[in-house]
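Table 4 source record.
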Amino acid sequence: MLVNRASWDTDAPNWIERGRSSWASDEPHWGIWGNPESDLHVLPDVSGLDVVELGCGTAYVSAWLARRGARVVGLDNSSQQLATARVLQEEFDLRFPLVHANAERAPLADGSFDLAISEYGAAIWCDPFRWIPEAGRILRPDGRLVFIAGAALMMLCFPTDDDAAPADTRLHRDFFGMHRFEWHDRDGVVDSVEFHLGHGEMIRLLRSCGFAVEELLEVRAPDGATAVEADVSREWAQRWPTVEVWKARKAHPAVRSDARSWRSR
C-alpha cells in the first residue's frame, strides 16, 4: 500500500476542487459519471447510525452521510488527502473524526459500526482479500457494507500495452485470475495498484466473510454526462457498465454456518 499512499499524496492537490464541489452538493452523486442518489438509491437510511468510510479521500461521502444524521468516521491511507478533508471540514463547518490508516488493517474496534462504505477508496485501492474481512470485523451483526468500484468488464477492456489508453471494445486481459492491476508511469515504474475481482469470486469472498449479498447495481452513464476521469468514453459506458455498486449485509453468527472459509491471498 506504500505505492498507492505515495501516489495519492502526490496527486492530492488535483482533488481539492473536486472535493470542494462534492462537499457543496445537496445530493450524493456516485461513480465517475455522477449518477444521483435519487436514481441509484445507494444509501439506506443512515440517521443515527455509526458509519465508517474506508478510503475517504477528501471525505465528501462522509460529509453527505453526516448531513443525513450519521455518526461518521473517515479513514484514508493518504495524509495529504486527509489534510484537504480537514480544510473542507473548516470551510463547511462540518466535523467528524478522520483517521490516517490503511483499510487492510483498520485501527478500529470489533463491532463498532452499522455501515461501512467505500466509493472507490478501499474498494479498488486495497486488496479485497484483506479489506473485506476487516470490514466484516468492524461491523456489527446485521451491519451493511456498500462499496462502489470500477466494473469488472471494463477492467478487462483496458489495453495492456498503453496504461494511458481508454477502455475499448476488445477483451485484452484474462477474466480468470483477475485480482491485481498495476499501472505504470512513463518510465515503466509501477505508480499505482488497483484490485478487482470477477463477480463469482467476489460473491464467494463476501460469503466467506459472513456477508449476504443483497444487490449488485451495474451503472450506465447518463445521457450528456462527463466522466471525472477520461478512462472510458460516454458512448462505451452507455453500452457496458463502468461502475458497480455492491450491497451486502453481515449475517448474525447463528446463520453463518454455511459460509465457507476462504484462503488468504
